[in-house]
Specification:
Elements (H helix, E strand, L loop, with lengths): L1 H16 L1 H6 L3 H34 L6 H25 L5 H6 L4 H35 L3 H13 L2 H19 L4 H28 L3 H18 L1 H9 L4 H24 L1 H8 L18 H14 L2 H24 L1 H7 L9 H13 L16 H5 L5 H31 L4 H27 L9 H6 L1 H23 L5 H24 L7
Helix pairs in contact: 1-6, 3-6, 3-22, 4-6, 4-8, 4-11, 6-12, 7-12, 8-9, 9-15, 10-11, 11-12, 14-19, 15-16, 15-19, 17-19, 17-20, 17-22, 19-20, 20-22, 20-23, 22-23
Amino acid sequence: MIRQIKLLSKVLLANTFGINKLRYGKDKADKVRFSILLVAMIFLIASAGLLVYKMFSTYCKVGLGFIVPTYLYVFISILMLVFTIFKSGAVLFSVKDYDMLISLPVSKAAIVISRFFTMYVHNILVSLIILIPGIGTYIYYERPELSFYIICLISILFLPLLPLTIASIIGAIITAISSRMKNKNIVEIVLSLGLCFGLLYAETVLGKKSQEMTPAMMQDLVTFFNDKIKQVYLPAGWFGEAINGNITSFVLLILGPILVFGVFALIVGKHFQNICSSINAISAKNNYKLEALKENSITKALLKKEFKRYFSSSVYVTNTLIGYILSGVMCILILIVGKETVLNKMGLGMLGNQVDSFFPFIISLMFGIMSITASSISMEGKNLWQIKILPIRSIYVYNSKILLNLIIASPFYIISVVALILAVKPTGENMLFMIVLPLCYIVFSAVLGITINLHFPNFNWENEAVPVKQGMASLLTMIISLASVALPLVAKYFLKSISIETIILVTMGVLVVATVSMYIHIGKKELITL
């Protein structure tokens, strides 16, 4: 069975990361795209590493470095749990290649373990982005003994087993429940967003409490939470004791997750076929009635199709809607609790009296986090031919995707701007900038997304998370959008003699020119052939 797991895992990982295409493909453009993606990933990893260092170095400087390894272990476990719950069911019990695999001379346990191993590799790679700078910070300040390095390295390899196993069980339950509901995608979207905002609310409450505490109170609280975490999440306690030389805790830390995963793999492998059939079962009523057929314009018909495609994917919605929702929440909080409180929490308190002038950029930053159009072409997948055979110009397809982005963003834009105007009460040109600049960024981001996705499409995916969360087009669109907000602010920092009003006017001009240029460019570009 080991050989079966190895072969299946190799195929799944090659498909997930596009290794075969990069290694054996003769298209030089693919290698260029990979190089660009690699540079973008290095930039993001460096940024994440800097944030992790700043956060944990603060603990070390005030004498709380002892809690860093335990906190890292718990934080990574929660991160894996949260981001795996809503995709584990679809990955482990996917029916796309189910018929082919079940007919092969491979054991069902090998199929389960190979799919689980694919999630394991992906999660361990992502967790290293946080673990390496976090552990590095701890080593720099605390200077642990040699045994720490050996125990820490081995423990990290087994860290994902327990959270991924728990996430797989919960994910399978959610998939099974939602698959029997009429609006199952809405259920998944609500659950995903609810979980994200629940964690955000918890972090906000804890952050507010921490600001009200003295260093002595903070140390007592951290020690208290550290003890409670070890009691509630036993592996974290074992990890904390293991790095201090407790061999029994080290053995438990390794064998515990292995035992839990082994029981899970054994049960699922034995009942794999029945579980797949039950989870992916679809019930339908036979009371269909043919009603009057309706005729729509080309744009309206394509727009309806885009809406159905968008809301049919919980991964697509939750990953592209979060920035818009955060913008609305932030502006409503500013209206309710005051701008000073919110901006201090965001780490922007240093803006001082000039903050009103920077609000247009702050809102624009939220709307530029993720563009819906950045993965809209790739999301067509292997069904792209259905659009290509239609007797319409490609620009109609692009327009429908851009319109979807603008329509989805509109209510959040209106709520954000209205709440902010009521809270800040700007006058004259400041009010105009607060209305127009975010709107320019929304349109710019929508057109930018479709432009980049046309140049960096990905149609050969098995899981929707690939084009939405891991696609080069999504990553580049996010980086360019964030850079387009950061550059004017950097210019203002270095060019102090130029007023913020002038910076905003120039920014709006550049955005309009860039948006029009990109739109003219995509108007001449045909849809890619598979």
